[in-house]
Amino acid sequence: MASHKESKCPEGSTSKHVINGAGAPQAQWGRAWKVDWFSLLSVIFLLLFAPFIVYYLIMSCDQYNCSLTTPAIDFFTGKTHLSNIWNRMPSLTWTAVSLYISWVLFQVVLYMLPDFVHKLIPRYRGGLQEGTVTPAGVILNYEVNGLQAWLITHALWFANAYHFHWFSPTIIFDNWIPLLLCANILGYTVSIFVFVKAYWFPTNAKDCKFTGNFFYDFMMGIEFNPRLGKWFDFKLFFNGRPGIVAWTLINLSYAAKQKELYGQITNSMILVNVLQGLYVLDFFWNEAWYLKTIDICHDHFGWYLGWGDCVWLPYTYTLQGLYLVYHPVQLSTGNAVGILLLGLVSYYIFRMTNHQKDLFRRTDGNCKIWGTKPKYVECSYMSADGTKYYSKLLISGFWGVARHFNYTGDLLGSLAYCLSCGFEHILPYFYIIHMTILLVHRCIRDEHRCSSKYGKDWKQYCDVVSYRLFPGVF
């Protein structure tokens, strides 16, 4: 499903050279033009079962005290029926519908505002930013204002909690399942809309990919950058807002509920809020960098991102906080400090790995990484309009340790979130299981794309940097 802040190849800055003649070869990078049977089966499986997986996770907490096995055992032994589970589920309410519609519209308004935060905070890169070259040779501009939206949203949240009292801080938790229904409606509505839009009024027809397979095209998307007007970019909005802005608010609502139920907030809940809050804040601080990642530079926008960002991200990435509402865990001081250190070290690896690539790209290699001038592999690739581009693949610093060492930091951070919940139930560990599958798959998918894009230059790079994630292992 959709992920947050995923990096692509360790590329440096790009220059171009126009190839004369209409016979210039077509660009082949980007998602697949043809569908193999394994990919098609995977797509059908996710389309059929991903919504039920999310529902099962949330339902197990709401009805079975966060046990993943008990509802399945009760069903197969005849102790309960699907109708019983469904009938016990909270129904859709006007409170949830109005709350969700207001939330999404508020984020749309914030998304369309010009950014002023970059003028106030030194070293923050916001405002008008340029994206990377698409396979068709298009370069889009973006108004980067995610940090501004996050700050405004959270300022209003705390103003309400401590002064205005318009609504309870537990409002998200109290309406969590009805909000799940709303999120599914939006996810499917957006996915269907962009699918139809790709046929009838695409933003850029040359960046559309049709495989001829309905299921694959619907899930993986046809349009590369579907937009309404000049600035409303579906991919950037749904990848960054409203799901990721909500992530920290959801955790705060969980903490408020824990305080309401037990009279205190446990150190494990604080750890989850702090570590995941740091990750979210990092995302918005580096949103301009995010324009260079797989989600923006490679993925087309379909159900995978549309539904995934609306449902999968907010409902599965926050399972640790949800679990701690039902099972409050007070860690020993030693364990809490150890988990905090693991989370901070993993964040350092993640951030510094991406910083090294960003520094290398922005300076065209005229910088120092780990005290020395960086080494790189020179490479070239072609866009569909016959333009040849040159790029550099970094092989110094963390990028010389493994080809996706930022993913390594991501996985270690995911483990820290899960360890905060103790070992009584497996449910909070769904996140690390999911992230491992996701990032390993992304490694393979990204390297297939890079191989198609760079050809023999990519093989040369892999010969120098032999491992993907963990040196000596994988």
UniProtKB/TrEMBL annotation:
Protein's name according to its UniProt entry: 7-dehydrocholesterol reductase
Entry keyword set: Cholesterol biosynthesis, Cholesterol metabolism, Endoplasmic reticulum, Lipid biosynthesis, Lipid metabolism, Membrane, NADP, Oxidoreductase, Steroid biosynthesis, Steroid metabolism, Sterol biosynthesis, Sterol metabolism, Transmembrane, Transmembrane helix
EC number annotated for this UniProt entry: 1.3.1.21
Pathway participation: Steroid biosynthesis; cholesterol biosynthesis
TM helices/strands, residue ranges: 37-58, 92-113, 176-196, 329-350
Similarity comment: family membership: Belongs to the ERG4/ERG24 family.
Taxon lineage: Eukaryota, Metazoa, Chordata, Craniata, Vertebrata
Pfam short name (any one): ERG4_ERG24
EC class of the enzyme, as a word: oxidoreductase
Keyword Oxidoreductase found: yes
Catalytic activity, reaction form: 7-dehydrodesmosterol + NADPH + H(+) = desmosterol + NADP(+); cholesterol + NADP(+) = 7-dehydrocholesterol + NADPH + H(+)
Gene (UniProt): DHCR7
Membrane topology: Multi-pass membrane protein
Domain of life: Eukaryota
Annotated PANTHER family: 7-DEHYDROCHOLESTEROL REDUCTASE, DELTA(14)-STEROL REDUCTASE
Annotated function: Catalyzes the last step of the cholesterol synthesis pathway, which transforms cholesta-5,7-dien-3beta-ol (7-dehydrocholesterol,7-DHC) into cholesterol by reducing the C7-C8 double bond of its sterol core. Can also metabolize cholesta-5,7,24-trien-3beta-ol (7-dehydrodemosterol, 7-DHD) to desmosterol, which is then metabolized by the Delta(24)-sterol reductase (DHCR24) to cholesterol.
Subcellular localization, as worded in the UniProt entry: Endoplasmic reticulum membrane
